[in-house]
Design a protein that fits this description.
Radius of gyration: 21 Å
Bound molecules: ligand GMT
Largest sheet: 7 strands, parallel
Order of helices and strands: EHEEHEHEHHEHEHEHEHEHEHEHEHHH
Structural class: alpha/beta
Oligomer: single chain
Length: about 375
């Protein structure tokens, strides 16, 4: 098949999933065309069957805001015509689904549109009255819609009352990249012998509750000699740094900023903390599970579909930092339990979230769309 993929190419789970999907589809012989404003950061080296088409918004002086959405629609249409694309698979509804529907109108009905909802495009932007109707339009005019968890399917239905079928297709990891790696030599650079290493990776937006990460770590650190590795950047970071200083944890918290390649960093850790207020899936928890690292997280959104409470990690109510700290201590003190969780996680990744299985689910959906089996 000839497939155009549009996503946010910068850091973020939706861009990661879109890029990894494109790479797997290309490996399986499909022609993949990324249509984005930048090269997706996980694309990396040259891949046979993958092309990249940049999108440039016109910055003419009369525009207060460069019309990116129109430039994207126009580029999608150009690429679709030039390479006779079968379909556009867009990740994240705003503005990608709407731009794809417009491109389809420019090219013709034979060009199909598949939209994958990732989370904040529904749970945050869908609550904005200025965007709600246009998101609903993008969803209802797509030829097929997927969401990354059952929870997101439900939330989309509740918020938009659309009767468009939405298929749940889980996110996945490439087990050739995410697997338990022996990082003992690098670990020595971050921690002293006998210390434990906790990890948090996010975009440090309020929805990730990074301040809770510090509160949890503070409590853990009182009981167990430990350090905290923080990966990522975002608006909450200054507050987080201030709190770390207030609690005099400067020597214990390591800020690494944004990192492109996280599989090695994850393998360094004993535990992942993910106390988010909203999370439609929690890709980082899946990446950790694939590296054999258990997660302590909030019981929200799609997280319980990824992390099995009491089996591959522990879940708590959002904001319950006391319980999250207790759970973390429990896992860090009991090596047998941690090993058991790690093994259960690896098994879960194999059976539910392996790349090959998920790519086949997408291929099946594409086939249905192209054969006109979906209304
Ligand atoms: O988490 C974010 O704020 C970024 C956002 C994105 O677009 O990358 O993440 C969403 O999509 C990821 C990939 O499907 C999911 O793993 C995240 O759970 C989801 N984030 C939220 O729902 C907050």
């Amino acid at each position: 098949m000839r497939i155009g993929i549009t996503c946010y190419p910068s850091h973020g789970g939706s861009g990661v999933v879109a890029t990894e999907l494109g790479k797997l589809l290309a490996e399986r012989g499909h022609d993949i065309h990324f249509i984005t404003y930048d090269m997706p950061f996980r694309l990396g080296r040259f891949h046979q069957n993958i092309r990249y088409h940049g999108v440039e918004a016109n910055r003419y002086a009369v525009f207060k805001f460069p019309p990116y959405d129109l430039a994207l629609a126009s580029r999608m249409a150009q690429v679709a015509k030039a390479y006779r694309l079968d379909l556009l698979h867009v990740h994240y509804a705003v503005p990608h689904a709407i731009a794809a529907v417009l491109a389809k109108q420019m090219v013709g009905d034979h060009l199909k549109v598949v939209t994958t909802l990732h989370g904040t495009d529904i749970t945050v932007l869908g609550e904005d009255p200025g965007l709600k109707d246009v998101i609903c339009f993008g969803i209802s005019r797509s030829d097929a819609v997927t969401a990354v968890s059952d929870s997101l399917v439900r939330q989309t239905r509740e918020l938009f009352c659309v009767d468009t079928p939405i298929r749940r297709i889980y996110n996945f990891v490439d087990s050739r990249v995410y697997y338990p790696k022996d990082m003992s030599s690098l670990r020595d650079r971050y921690i002293y012998p006998g210390e434990r290493l906790l990890l948090h990776i996010s975009n440090f937006r309020p929805v990730k509750r990074p301040m809770d990460v510090i509160e949890i770590f503070h409590r853990v650190n009182r009981e167990i000699p430990s350090r905290l590795l923080l990966v990522g950047e975002g608006p909450e970071l200054p507050k987080v740094m201030e709190r770390v200083n207030e609690l005099e944890l400067q020597d214990k918290v390591i800020f690494l900023g944004n990192q492109d390649e996280v599989s090695q960093l994850i393998s360094l850790a004993d535990l992942l903390l993910l106390p988010s207020a909203k999370e439609s899936f929690g890709l980082v928890a899946l990446e950790a599970m694939a590296c054999g690292v258990p997660t302590v997280a909030s019981n929200i959104g799609g997280i319980p579909e990824v992390v099995e409470d009491g089996v591959t990690g522990f879940l708590s109510e959002v904001g319950d930092v006391e319980k999250m700290a207790m759970d973390a201590v429990r896992l860090l003190k009991n090596e047998a339990l941690a090993r058991q969780f790690s093994e259960a996680g690896l098994q879960r990744v194999k059976t539910k979230f392996c790349g090959l299985r998920i790519v086949k689910e997408y291929e099946e959906l594409y086939r249905e769309v192209l054969e006109g089996k979906r209304e």
